[in-house]
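User: We ran a pulldown and think these components assemble together. Before we commit to crystallization trials, I'd like a predicted model of the whole complex to look at. Sequences follow.
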Amino acid sequence: MFNEYLLSFILILISLYGLCTSKNIIKSIVCLNILEISIILFFLRIFDVSGGSAPILPNELSSMVDPLPQALVITAIVIGASVTALALMLSIKVFHHYGTLDWKELLEREG
Amino acid sequence: MDYIPIILIFLPLLTSIIIYIADDKRANALAFVTQIALIFATLQYYFSFRNIGVHKLTLGGWDQFIGITLRNDYISVSFILTSVFIWSIVLIYGWPKHRKDTKYHFFLLMQQGCFLGLVQTNDLFNFFLFIELTTMISTILILYKNDGYSIRAGLFYLLFNSIGMLFFLIGIIMVYMISGTLNMEVTSYKLMVIRDLGLVKLSFIFMIAAVGVKSAFFPVYNWLPKAHGAAPASISALLSGLLVKSGLYGFIRLNQMFGLEGFKSFFIAVGFITAVSGVVFALCQKDIKQILAFHTISQVGLILIGLSTMEGMQYYGGLLHIFNHAIFKTLLFLCVGNIITVYDSRRITEIRGVFRTMPFLSVFMIIGMLSITGSPLFNGFVSKSIIKYSFSDFPVLDTMINIINIGTAASFIKFSQVFFGKSETLMGESKTDNLSLFLLSIACLVMGLFHVPITRELWGVELHHINLLSLEKWFIYFLTLFIGFFIYKLLIEKDYKLVKSIRHSSISFEASNILLVLFVSLMILWSRVMV
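Assistant: Here's a predicted model for the assembly, 642 residues in total across the polymer chains.
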């Protein structure tokens, strides 16, 4: 059985594996994004009502999708985007200073 | 009075935006105007708050199940008072150096607004939002010097804390799945009956892992010494004094929400290991800022030991230590910042004769050191003895805290070597701002001497039955100093190979992620086996 729960779970595991093994800064940032996207997928899937309508008041209450998770997800996406932007900016600066994007080499450098 | 919590959040934010738009060095003085306004607002709020005890504010006229709510109880109010005090001090301290710097004041005030929101919110998602905001702004503030070292530390800090906070997001989703609301107070009622459900425990574990990263618990504290070492002095003081405490604030709130009993001994163990490892690393360092950074870790461990039970004297000891630590660690970091500017060096072996060159600063610094080592009459002593007092029936735990105290004493005896001797490098006279240091030292003494009325007034706790000034305490303190001195002379000063290898050990990014995953798995294992 293949569904979205399984997909998001596999994506979480992949991203954790990537975070624990990748030695490159860019790869770490990519893994961070995958982790976030898989959490958001999980979030949206749980509160999805199949055949549900948009949460606007005149509709029937029973078939309405819960609007709160969607509001939260939008905020979470915005936070994720800004963290990614900041991290990418910093990795460019790191590359200019040290000439490498490898975590291990980076932490061994003096100064 | 009703809307003062909103003013506390938005006044610093609005002023920061005005400062940024005006982009004029004269506009920077607005920061002080804001601080004065905040002090008045906080005091007025406090005097009306003490009649109610708990103040709730629902925004936008919604029902509290779905709307955003602010809720202040005695913990929040103590955090607000401390943060307004510390921010004013940091702004005064940084004024001669950063007078013309618009961006510094912009980010500092924005940080204050976010922090004041963080300690007042009653909504889990807003808590997540504010923590992420403070993380991002602190990253930018860590980068202030814009050299290679600080960029590296800032990147590490940003990525590692973001990963931690994503675990918090998973926890939030699970809580929302179970309880259908994100309001902390309502959630705590709803979880009361289904506490033992596996999903509840799992969400608790994920959230604790996240606040553990934020407040530097044992396996996940690698970001802290890097970040504290790289930031300028005023920012390190802020990071160590208050922003690390945002995680501990989250820890208190999560424990109040979930009320899981089974994790108490786990947190005591984690706190003890955190404290000891912090002390061991601090003993081996030679960079004066790194020493203070590792002491932040060890003090966080001590606070965690205190907070772990969430009730009784021990809990109040831990809570009091949060604020005492905020005061004396800010004092120490600011003093060290001045020393570094004057001597232009950070190595403890190169700095000598501070007492002769900067007598006033030395006095303030000695007050800070007496506080952190737990000397009677100073504030660190009060909270440490309250934590210890509750352990008087458990000799093992009592000994553990004594070991931590001895390590701290040894490390600060090493630190005190900077006062003596004669400096070889002649340095230019620099203007040191003693007002902020003076205020912090006074706060140290006031918290040390008048802790009984202060805690009665703020939290309604009676502490006078704990006899703090018995001869035994003085004896124990001097014995601690004595043993610490011998440890320093016999082990540390010789600089053995082991000390060197501990000093140069550093953990890479992927290893710290493995440690984070390990921390989570350990807690899951504990909840399966022990709870």
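Chain B has a mean pLDDT of 87. That may be worth checking against your pulldown data before setting up trials.

User: Thanks, that helps.
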